[in-house]
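Marked as duplicate of an earlier ticket. Keeping the data here for the record.
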Amino acid sequence: MAFHRLQMIMELKDSEERLKTIFEASPIPVVVFSPKGQVEMWNTAAEKTYSWKKRGGLENSTLLYPRIKGKIF
């Protein structure tokens, strides 16, 4: 039982690492929003495209579409 649980944890960590690698390596800007419309994170392509800094401005949900805030979320 403990071995099975440990194996599942290791597989989950591997899966998360693969997803993180794909997310960061994507040439397409990817921005992740919370259900309330807050920007939670973005990848390197989004950082370059929008001239954002990592972890800067995460409190601002209007970085991309300031005129439509509240109409989507």
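See parent ticket for discussion. Residues 38 and 61 are 4 Å apart (CA to CA).
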